[in-house]
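MODEL INPUT / OUTPUT PAIR
PAIR INDEX: 1
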Amino acid sequence: MGKTNLAGDGQADLVNHGGVDKAVLAYSADHYPKWRQDLLLPDMPFGAFGENLTIAGMSEGSVCIGDTFRIGTAIFEVSQPRQPCWKLSRRWRMHELAALVVRNGRSGWYLRVVEEGRIEAAMPVILIERPNPEWPIARANEILHHRRTDLPLTLALADVPGLANAWVEELRERAELLR
């Protein structure tokens, strides 16, 4: 594992994928039953949303910006919600899939690697620190995608410690346009 991805994982589009703030994509295993039902894909496997880690018992409502987790000997920090791109839609041949992910908020979240280490399937995900309990991924998604004209919330989200630089820049640009 490195600071920008897991061993054996590579990203072709380094402008929009990977990097320090988007080194690892985590997705809730708990979403899969609903997706299988909604999309009529009973055999949809874990990893179907392009995630590196499929994690049970966590979701966008329970994971917060800045949360620090230990998995195996590695330490990760939550940096931002995932903004699904067209590649997800193309992968499943469903033109509206990325938009549906934005609407329902089942997006997943990105992790930065704080401390490199070794992880394996089925290792526990242990919360070490939660500095921003008022900023779950679901709330950040809501502000970015559905409350686009709310200047106070836009500025508040931009000030959250640990939020990815790209999100901070996007939110500050939006705030300038709203003033």
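PAIR INDEX: 2
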Amino acid sequence: MDHVTHMINNKAWVGIAERQGEVHNPSTGEVTAMVDFATSNEIDLAVESASKAFSVWGTTSIAKRTEILFRYRELLNSRRHEVARRVSAEHGKVQNDALGEVSRGLEVVDFACGIGQLLKGEFSENVSTGVDSYSIRQPLGVVTGITPFNFPAMVPMWMFPVAIACGNTFILKPSEKDPSTSVFLAELLVEAGLPEGVFNVVHGDQVAVEALLDHPRIAAVSFVGSTAVARSIYERAAKAGKRVQALGGAKNHMVVMPDADMEVVADAAVNAGYGSAGERCMAISVIVAVGSAGELIIEKVRERVANLKVAPADDPDADMGPLITKEHRDRVAAYLDSGVDEGADLAIDGRQHKIHGDPGGYWLGPSLFDNVQPQMSLYRNEIFGPVLSMIRVTNLDEALELIGTNPYGNGAAIFTSDGSAARRFQAEVEAGMIGINLPIPVPVSYYSFGGWNQSLFGDLHIYGPDGVRFYTRAKAITARWTGITRNATLAFPTNS
């Protein structure tokens, strides 16, 4: 059995853990590792290491910082299959899905390698006679990221490459359910030449999270997870005077107009609804069928689901793997009964899907409900599993109203051949990320990822230009080197 511990000051922690947690193989249910849980003592050690490192790293040249990031990028790219195998082993997602996750994380490392262009300030000469004004952006100090189980490689890479490129030092608290990937990412940073203390990894549960949120030497917190936890983290960290970006839950809608290509729609619904067993914050969870679109969608989705192979992540032919834990699997499966009890039609029952794997694994096949109503728990809650719901509406007005009254606002998509409908949708829909004829509109690294409403707590989105703004502070400078006169006056200064 493996032992996963913290990485502090570029070294594996050598202390004795007061508490540990189990790490499971979701495909078999077996315990594969024990992970140490940090107390406030380990958090203090990590913060002390990061604080000491910041005194040097924060003033290290941009050229040196990017040199290390370029080396890291090449190491990560050459060993992406190792990262993906670690993701699959502890999360359960299939290999091509895990490789896709690593690739999207790499894009943010690419973006961070261009930090020299992104940190440039502004300069205005002679704003007043002999007076110049300019701005600079400076790092915050020690920052932390608290990341979820569903993307153990990608979501941390949404945060730390930009943060350390900007001159900050970073403490990562990954999910305790699949912690090994983060340690491997840290080891690659050490191999790339990152100085001691710039990047640290601490594992744990609520105890570790609260210690990070309350620590007076941590300047900023990035979080991705459920809405309830995101709100709590935002409130607690903001009260402690920290800068916060907390990304919460989602209920992503896919509006299908009657003029859409239904073959494309069915492919998109299956790919975006059941990929990674539905454990994606940008997964499509609600199909909004406008007019006559509904009947065609049901049959075409059923045809595709029948051919999906649900199997262990190391099966090269697997389309979908297990869910992350037994408890999560049982919670998701319970919606299949409650949905029927509330009056929805269970068109595809994932419990009847053939499973090619160990019966001890946390399996649930793709499921689809039809005639779901907005008051049902199926619709109101973020299920975070392979359960799609279809709601039928008569026109685009009703579809927009439905999405607008939903408390979440992460992403939304529309499938149509009508440009005017698509243009209206992108202008009026209440969501932060919009897809037109594609179902998962995760922005590329040089834009920023973030939702609206209860899908985001804080003012700035993650990675991209907003990431640079989040991990730096602007400073405006007004300077005069010529025409200095000795003229004592109490008058308010004006420009001349």
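PAIR 2 NOTE: Residues 2-248+455-477 form a domain with the Aldehyde Dehydrogenase; Chain A, domain 1 fold (CATH 3.40.605.10).
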